[in-house]
Here is the input.
Amino acid sequence: MGSLGVAVVLAAVGLGMGAVPAAADPAADHRAFVQAGFSGTTDEEYRAWVEALAATPDGPVMHASATRALAGTVEQLRAYGDAGYLLAWRADEEIRVARLMSTATKPTVDRAIQVVLEMADPQAVTDFLNTGLAEAQYVDDRLAAARMVLGGSDNTGPALDDAAQAALDGTRAELREFIVSGQFVARAIDAANAPAPAAPVPAAPVPAAPVPAAPVPAAPAAAAPAAQAARGARGPAVLAVTGVAEGPLAALAAAAILSGVGCVVLARRRRQPA
Here is the structure.
């Protein structure tokens, strides 16, 4: 990528030309305010101090206990403002660390959180939030950026490579900004400049199934007269059951009838008187 292209990429991701300042963090500002301590003496100063403690944006335990102190007597208010708030502060500090588990990067931050919580030391928890978290996060950010350079397992192209190299050479704040948002701008640039995929080769057409041949029509049956004529030519037919031919059977039947008639006539004549 040319020098102009590199400059465009770095400007797009906020690197190389001065990173955009990080947004204000109310929770971090309130933690710094509480750790600075209190040195007031009047009732009004105690009340203002406890009211500030109750305004914590991420400390549910301190908010509840400070609110109760504000509703109590002057003695209760002063006792809470001097040292009573520390128990609530330590409980909220552990809550802050535990909340980091859901977004912790690996391997350094994730492991550091587990170690701190297992120690059960209020000062260790506060020290981790003050400095340890940032140190562990820097280690993980460098590991992540190293995987994005050209040849790395998480690289998408030259734009991400240039941005990752610049982030690794920049400040901790610039590196963090790159990990949080800048890398995605570079990835989008690589995706837009990627060559279009080759058109797929069309598959060979599947041959059509053969059309089945039309069935051959059966031969027509012979006409009845022709069959009878053929049968007459072969001679008299024989009955299937008796085995007697049709012609002689007819003659025998006729002779039996004539014989029967003659017998009837002869019997009648014999009964007539002489």
